[in-house]
Request: fold
Amino acid sequence: MKELEKTKRISIASTLFILIVLIAVLSYERPKHLYKVNSIATLEKLTSADYFVSLSNINNPDYVLIDVRSQFEFEKGHLENAINIYTAEILTDDNSDVFEEIKEKNKTAILYGANPNEVNAPFMLLYQLGYDNIKILAIENSYEENKLISKNVEIEKSVANINAFIEESVKKASKGSKQKVVVKKPRKKTISVKKKKKAPAEGGC
Amino acid sequence: MVKKKVAKVLAFRYMVLAGILIILAGGLVLLPKYEKHEGIKPEQLLSNVISPERYITTDYLADKLISQDPSYLLIDVRDEESYTTYSIPNAINIPLAKLLDEDSEMYLNQDQFNIVLFSNDNFSADQAWILCNRLDYKNLHVLKGGVNMWYNTIINPIKPTEDMPAEAFELFTFRKAASMYFGVAYPEQFKATVVKKVIPKKVITVKKKKKAPAEGGC
Reply:
């Protein structure tokens, strides 16, 4: 009888264990979004810099324009045939379906926003989730009289040569000071020699 | 007799249990491959990326540099050529292509310093930040506007017009002082020193002492 009890305990324990594992496996939810690209591969893509398009070549039937600004901005003015997917809502189910559809049809999604910096985030996120058919439209959007004005912009362009600026300012400043020194130099050195006369000792020796 | 039967049943039971356990172990091997799924979850990454917390302004950075705050480390993610031409003082250079190298990890993946990433504009610095954020590096910031904004606000600040509030003028004085700290020279600086260099009149007094002749017989 004692032997039976021991073996019963072991079998009960192991069945319980198996049950628990089964329950865990069945209730396991596959995460909705999984990265398909690791960081190093993403970095290589970023440094290749071949994912930009400019305004002149957006009239391609294979391109789908996506505006990543908020709905308010989108309604103020947007490029023709653009659909609006706000950056914060990229991972919702509806939008994921949109991207899957674009991928299936073998089209390229072109993302744009108020400026290229805004587009950085959705672009990188989508790329890392596996949608490699996306590009960035490098434009700056502004409004004039309720109309949208878009112009091409160069990414990461240096605005000024700072070293040259600093050197020039030093030159200018020292030039100005040199002139003044010249003016003030020929001032005569006036040395006044004072003769003091000591009064002769008077009286009372 | 009873014992023998029991023994058989028990043996069978154990075999069944062992079999199930082995199958489960095999299932673990076949779980979806997580190799490429490194880093924080996409939803988390998205919310981090959208928030503007990571930006710091050029004024803030200038303040930290001038007061020589030792906890800030500047990393320039442009290419070497741009870095050697000009870079914000005390910045080190990690070109974007080398961001995930092992040597760079020592600079990026630590929680001693506050790291400020910058480039000509936000773009490359933001990309670097997003990459590092996926790998859950902490204490990373981005300089808003990059070197271009540095030029426009610190090196060459815009003089406020008459109709701007007093804070704008205070900000301008701060920026102008900062620009002097970083090497820009203004003509007014030299004017002041020239005035001081005026050679002062030297007054040399020569005293002639006349000794009084001894009078009388005192």
About this structure: Strands of chain B lie at 55-56, 72-76, 91-93, 114-118, 140-143, 203-208.
